[in-house]
Amino acid sequence: MQPIRELSGLTPGQLPPGLTEAAQPVVLRGLVSHWPVVARARQSDAALADYLQSCWRGAPVAIMTGPPEIEGRIFYNDDFTGMNFGRADAPLPALLQELLRCRTMERPPCYYVGSTTLEECLPGFPAHNTLDLQALAAPGDAAPQALASVWLGNRSRIAPHYDLPDNLACVAAGRRRFTLFPPEQLPNLYVGPIDFTPAGQPVSLVDLRQPDFERFPRFAQALAHAQVAELEAGDAIYIPSMWWHQVEALEAFNLLINYWWRQSPAHMDPPVLTLMMALLSLRDLPEPQRRAWQGIFDHYVFNAGPETAAHIPEAARHALAPLTPQGAANLRSHLMHRLQQR
């Protein structure tokens, strides 16, 4: 493994220009060191809990809970019939008190709040913990409409997975270790089911803490291309779209705030829907037909350009025309109609 590239000496709250252009991960030391929540976290866990409670407005939070035996690894159960954790809703103050109570335990139960919107969980937080996202926009464009989410709990390990949006993850309390793999390492990561997952995204089945190289021999190649960094409170990391990443919370009380945004129009659907349809309609075709369809996808999708439909009158291009909100709606309607005919 190699270290993730780092930038330091940043003006707190100001992202460097050109951050996303290379589509490579970058650690941003001290980016959110000006946040009041970071100051409270550095003061004490109790001060942090008081501050978070002051940002709460009464909505229950969804908590993943696991016994001490899972050692914070949010994952499947032993026979893959379910998960090794449960789910519960609770008021945030109750969770905060439980995190404080468990701090001194050698083997505490696992408590993990993941991917909960900041607006829902801590609506009072953004007013004083600010971050200027303008540098993420193209010249002349407005800052992206990023979705801000909360990740709160004690020690946890989230297996390598990818996200479609670009990700700016900010450590507000505790420490977190990020292990990243480029998208092309997918064949070496031994990914589990894509439609039965611990938290929505497919995950690698390899335990990075103790890899089983007899069962997963190609994972050694993935590790050779891995990048790793450990972040303190006040640091942030940019994770490009589709990069696989494991995230480990290393302290008894950890808080991360992340911002997700897409570099594509809102009317585009998630590409995973295409993957699901391809499994349904393409994967089990005879090989000559699969090769033919591979060429069709290359022609109309992966290598498409202005010349792809230039021979068709512009008004008659329909699905082959540049995608607009209305065109996307028409395609969805067409697909729904075809699927209902099955």
From TrEMBL:
InterPro entries: Cupin_8, JmjC_dom. SMART domains: JmjC (SM00558). It comes from the Bacteria. PANTHER family: HYPOXIA-INDUCIBLE FACTOR 1 ALPHA INHIBITOR-RELATED (PTHR12461), HYPOXIA-INDUCIBLE FACTOR 1-ALPHA INHIBITOR (PTHR12461:SF105). This is Cupin.
